[in-house]
Sequence to fold (262 residues):
Amino acid sequence: MKLNKKELRKLQYDFNSICNRLLQADYQDYPEVLGKFLKFLNNAPIILDYIKDCGVCDWVMEETIQSVQMAYGRKIFGTGETDEEEVRNVYAVLSYLVETNNSIYHGVAMGYSSSGKYQDKIKGFNERFVMILIRHIERYLTKVGIDMGIDDRVIYNVTVDNGQAIIAADNATVTATNNVSVDRDELKRLITDIQSTAQNFCEEDKQTVSECIEVIKNEAVENKPKKGMLKTALSTLTALKGTAEFVAAVMALIQFVEPLIH
Fold:
């Protein structure tokens, strides 16, 4: 599909909104809100293409649902070993639950919390199962945005191949050269400093740090690093609220990577 950076940001905003609604839904309203969540995914071509590219779930869905539901809290769903398996399997389970009007909270969600409250069952189901799909989609959309760069005016063709976004500017060719060598040992040391000073972060921020570092680590050693990806990763790290040691570690990394950006 074709879209620009502004349209992608709008999509990310709408995706975050429907995700928040699902995660905060009352257990009695949950099946209906889950249906709206899946409808959003199915009506967003860039998301649906990503899900489809992850393959087709090969589970016998009726048997899978029944085995969890009839275990009365003693069993939960598997997800898969790879990212692609997690995406297709979680999506398939949620789709089947909606299609069969499953109430979820007093069936398949029972094993996701030891609490006797239905709302806690749904909360656990979201955190331990649904969030797997949400995180994968969030990460994919973020990577698409990073690859697009910072120009809102450029229209991009976005296709998916083996779970990876293929980004091409419409009717445009961009070339870049980079002759700056990188001290890999120093890069490794700077990254280790950031990781060690982020140990007390919440899990969500730790995940953000990990994803940003992965981008920087991979791009910094490329012959032609993507400047937009580096800038976005560094900006994301800078925006995190951490200790003075963390801030200092991030600033040191920024100074190290700066020659690759300019």
About this structure: The CA atoms of residues 204 and 241 lie 12 Å apart. The first helix runs from residue 5 to 23. The chain has a mean pLDDT of 85.
